[in-house]
Amino acid sequence: MARPREFDEEAVLDAAMQRFWDGGYEATSVKDLTAETGLTAASLYNAFGDKRAIYRTALDRYIETSIGVRIGRCEALPPRAAIATFFGDVLRRSLSDRQHKGCMVVNAALELAPHDGELRDIITGVLKRIEAFFRSAIEEGQADGTIGSKAPAEAMAQHLLGVLMGLRVLARVRPERALLEGLVATALAGLGDGTEGVSGPSIGRFD
Question: pTM score, two decimals?
């Protein structure tokens, strides 16, 4: 019988995820991963595979523990609040991130997706998942009159996805509260208020 693993797999994955998230794929060595996780290279390879396999598993964990959890929590809210809460959470995390790591998915999209088809498909799937969350909330809001109907839900959802990507990149190089809050406030105002107005209720500061 195979011996049971003598380490906490989730804790090791979290450590590897933080290392890749902070340094990126290419700049993170196996030595970095062993130092971060406390495991030998042989133990890491036996548990997860080579460096790329470790990265993919860590990215999957980030997707589910960060983006998946956020979507699940926001889906339970009224449509307009769901979108505002989603962006508010991203803003808070961005403004409190002293290392300016940004979003691991966006980082992977910039570093790896252009030349790694498999990872590109994973990242595309995540972005479509976020877009689908936005579209569902907008459709519900248009139906109940809390979101305007000047534009199709699909187009509005794609616009919000673009704002989110821009926000994540800006937060790495210009993590300025006024800049980031202004970007989100304008995007949320563009949702309208169900009476075809150009703005919704004030969102205030994302403290």
Answer: 0.88
Longest CA span, the chain:
67
Calculate the CA dihedral of residues 157, 163, 168, 169 and round it to 10 degrees.
130
Any idea what DSSP says for residue 113? G
Rg (CA), the chain: 19
- Per-residue pLDDT tens digits for 159-170: 999 999 999 999
Give residue limits of the domains in the chain.
59-189
Cα angle 107-81-165, degrees, rounded to a multiple of 5: 20
With beta carbons less than 8 A apart as the criterion, state whether 32 and 19 touch. Answer: yes
Helix (H, G, I), strand (E, B) or coil at 39: coil
Give the whole-angstrom CA distance, residue 195 versus residue 130: 26
Which CATH number, 1.10.357.10, 1.10.10.10, 1.20.1740.10, 1.20.140.10, labels domain 59-189?
1.10.357.10
Tokens of 7: 């380490």
